[in-house]
Structures are given as structure tokens and as C-alpha cells.
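Q: Got a minute? One more chain.
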Amino acid sequence: MQRFVCIGALTAACTFGGDGSNGASSANSVGTPTNATEGNPSTGGSPETSTADAEPSDETTGGVVAGTSDGGTSDTTTSGPETGSSTGTTTTLPDGLVVDGVVVRYYLDEFMDVRPANDAVVFDHAPVPTFDLEITRHGSDPSYVQLDGSKGLSWGNTQNNARVMAAVGGSKVADLDSSTELTIEFVASVDAVTSAGSRFVHVGANDSEHSFAISASDLDSLYLRTEVSNSQAVWSVNLDSMRRVYTVVIDVSSPSDPFQLFVNGTLQMPPNAQRAPDTITVNSAHFLSIGNRDTGGRAVQGSVMYAAIYSRALTAAEVKHNAELLGDSDDQPNE
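A: Always. Here it is, folded:
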């Protein structure tokens, strides 16, 4: 396993954890919600004004819930009771990122080393059959950046049409239809979002169609949307320009915790509002998009460094393990 050292390429110091400690924290245990307030306020500015496809304001509540990585990696973790996972089980973790159940994995970094900057394909690094994405550019966006020693794609404003996407029809992403479990994992740095809902990872079409989508309409909330009965979860979480690992774990069969959010491997407080479907519906006419929606105009102003989707609910130990590796470097190879 190859590790990279955070070098703070775009910041004065390595601030992955948000507190200047490179993500180390002994206060938070695996699988335990935290409501600790970030030491650094959001530096991204205000979301842009837009009214189309706005997230419901009555379900967005104030307050900040932020997580920090516990630091360190062990090969074997004995887990006690974990919400949404087995009780008292022993999980043997791989040296690299968890592979079991991974559907797609995008490092978003190939261009800075071995490929020309005008190459229009983002490679899927999950097992075959692969599902590569195409880049649609708008001006110079998305551009290629390096942050905290890790590489990714960056969008300069929320309204541009630059996007990374592919139609899901006939693909392994479409095969997720009728799933009861999913995990969506991504690394991002956020400067601003549109009030209409900037998309981090989106399987959907147009403004309002969401097979499943992770979005934000302000810098204090993160939304999960699915298509069935407009089901959703809304978390209070601080989004800012620091590079963080976000993991959304879905298990709609769980009566108490169908949706969970982890930040840097630490479980956050439950959503302020949630409505869980019986299953996840994936429309074969939809598109998988990263950093924007399929038609543009909903970009994340900032950077998306990595994204992956799993066909199962990762355990808290697996989430933490991946977050520690991605905190060191979200570039390939981590496997």
C-alpha cells in the first residue's frame, strides 16, 4: 500500500481534520455520534442565489455537526455494538481501501501525472465491468488541482455546466435498482454551493429526478435524496474549504437508522429529518454525475477529489478504515 504525506499544497498547513491536527482525535469512538463544533468557521462564502429546484428550507435546521478522523489504521478491528452493523463482530480489514461490494470508484487524479489535460474520460477503478465517465467542459472547468497533497477536479462557480457523467442504462449502476443498502463515499473541499442544490454525487436527471443524490443548498447542511416518495435525509454539517471524507451509509431495512453520515470516519448525529423508502429505485434513464447534475448549473464550487459507491452498507469500522487511508491520500493506488 502506497501512502502519501499531506504537504499542504494549497493551504498553509495540513488541516484534513479541520483542527490542524491532521485528523487525529481521541475523543470520538467508532460508531459514536459527535456533535462537536468545528474549530474553524466556514471560509467558503455564501451560497449563490437561485430559486429553481430549491431544497426544502423547512427541513434544514441550524447548527453544525462535524467529525474528525480518529487517526491510525489497524488491520483487525473488534467492534462492539454498531448501529447498522453486526454486534460484537471481528472485522478483518484490508491493507488498502475496502473492495467488498464496491461498484464504482473514481480517483479523479489521472490527468495530473500520466494523461493529457484535455483527455475527456475519468476511469472507473472498481472491478470489471468498468463504468467510465465522460468530462463535459465549460471554459476551463473542471480544472485539475492539488490540495493537501491530493489531486482532484475543481469547479470555479456553481452555475457552470462542466460535469463528469455517463448514462447508467445497462450498467452495473442500474443493477443497484431495488437495493436496500448502499454506501456513497466522496472527498470534497467546498467553497460555495447554489441554493438550488449543488450535487456531489448524483444519479438522476434534470432538476428533480433523483435515483439517489448527495447535495447541498447551503454550507450548513447535507442532503440525501432518493426518488421514491421524495424520501430524504438532512444533516447539519459544516461544509468548507478543508478537504474532508464524507460517507453516507444507507440501510433502509433498519427501522432506527436507515441513513447515516460519517465525516472523516466519525459518525454524525442523526439527520434532522428523514423519510426512508422500502428500496432504492434506480431509473435506467438516469445519469451518474460527479460535481454537478447531468444538465449542469448545479456545480459544487470547490473540488471533488474522489468518489465511490458500494452495493452494501459498510460497517463503522470499514468507514473509518477507508477514511484514514483517504485522509492520507485520495489518489490511486490505495488498493
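A: The chain has one domain: 59-328.
Q: Perfect, thanks.
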